[in-house]
Write a structure and sequence with these properties.
The chain has 325 residues and is mainly alpha-helical. The protein folds into two domains: 91 residues, DNA polymerase, domain 1; 184 residues, hpI Integrase, Chain A, CATH 1.10.443. Helix content is 57%, strand content 7%. The chain is built from 14 helices and five strands. It has a three-stranded antiparallel β-sheet. Strands 4-5 form a two-stranded antiparallel sheet. Strand 4 and strand 5 form a beta hairpin. The radius of gyration is 25 Å and the shape is globular. The termini are far apart.
């Protein structure tokens, strides 16, 4: 009898372990691909932080996790970022079979709530949006789904970056504004922030041979959507119906933010409508483009305004008289 009980106990243990394994696998499989990438990026930051303090990320207690969230808050991270950080840590622990207790999760939820309140009182999130650099754009584009929406968003991201465009300029673009030329398109922009008189100016949109060609992405979207006149970037309704009217600036901002999340960019919540323009100007400046060339593409009226868009760089690298004196 004792032997039979021992066998039964061992079998229950084996079955229980299998059930727990299936549960963890099911939890991992339930996450969308974009969520997995976002969580992976968040966990990499947490692991780096804990390793620097001699702690294993998978063994960190609630107090350590709370300290990490507070450190991220001190860096100026938005409340949504802290929420994603916590969700990534909690989910990863569950998948690894080392879940946090309900008491620990409750404590961390209260810490998160307090940090979010503090961020709200401080007016967090009112500063300039993070620049979407070239590598960010490539990652965002690569993460887009197939189909009409993917083609539209690919064209929007690549064209917005290449044109150093404001979101208002993007939504105002029409087929009549683009003129095919050797190597790409001339894009006639009117009614921008610095175009009070409505005279407009011309930008160049390249159509290169690489996988991230703005011109080719634009052509692919127009052909797939059957757009031959009117607004270029439009809402896609249920059933794949293309709306007649153009998108809004808010929609552009949401698309940029969503694409950054799907790409698993750790600071995706800091990406918005101006991220494409800010990133393109920064990239051009770091590549050594003249301020006048940048102004010609961005539409800025002064070099001072352009410099405000360029993210901080090492002053040694940006020194303008390098090699001269």
């Amino acid at each position: 009898m004792a032997k039979e009980k021992a066998i039964a106990k061992r079998e229950r243990g084996i079955l229980g372990a299998l059930d727990r394994k299936r549960m963890r696998e099911a939890l991992a499989d339930s996450l969308a691909e974009g969520t997995r990438r976002a969580y992976k990026a968040a966990l990499a930051l947490f692991s780096t932080w804990t390793a620097a303090r001699g702690i294993k990320a998978e063994e960190a207690g609630a107090d350590v996790i709370a300290a990490y969230l507070a450190a991220r808050d001190a860096e100026g991270r938005a409340g949504s970022t802290l929420g994603k950080d916590l969700a990534a840590i909690v989910t990863a622990r569950a998948i690894m079979g080392k879940p946090l207790s309900d008491a620990d999760k409750g404590q961390l939820a209260r810490v998160l709530k307090g940090l979010r309140k503090k961020a709200g009182r401080a007016g967090r999130g009112t500063g300039p949006r993070k620049a979407a650099r070239a590598d960010d754009i490539k990652a965002m584009v690569s993460a887009l789904p197939p189909g009409l929406m993917g083609k539209r968003d690919r064209a929007l991201l690549l064209c917005g970056f290449a044109l150093m465009a404001r979101r208002g300029e993007l939504v105002a673009l029409t087929v009549e504004n683009i003129e095919p030329t050797s190597g790409g398109y001339y894009v006639h922009v009117k009614g921008g922030k610095t175009d009070a008189e409505g005279k407009g100016f011309v930008k160049f949109l390249p159509s290169s041979s690489g996988p991230y060609s703005p011109g080719k992405a634009l052509r692919a979207w127009l052909d797939a959507a059957g757009i031959v006149s009117g607004p270029i970037f439009r809402r896609i309704r249920k059933g794949g119906h293309i709306a007649a009217e153009g998108m809004t600036g808010q929609m552009v901002a949401r698309i940029i933010h969503r694409a950054a999340e799907e790409a698993g960019i750790a600071e995706a919540e800091e990406f918005a409508g101006h991220s494409l323009r800010r990133g393109a100007i920064t990239e051009a400046a770091e590549a050594g483009a003249s301020i006048y060339a940048i102004m010609g593409q961005s539409g800025h009226k002064s070099a001072q305004m352009v410099s405000a868009y360029v993210e901080a760089r090492d002053k040694r690298e940006a020194y303008p008289l390098k090699g001269i004196i």
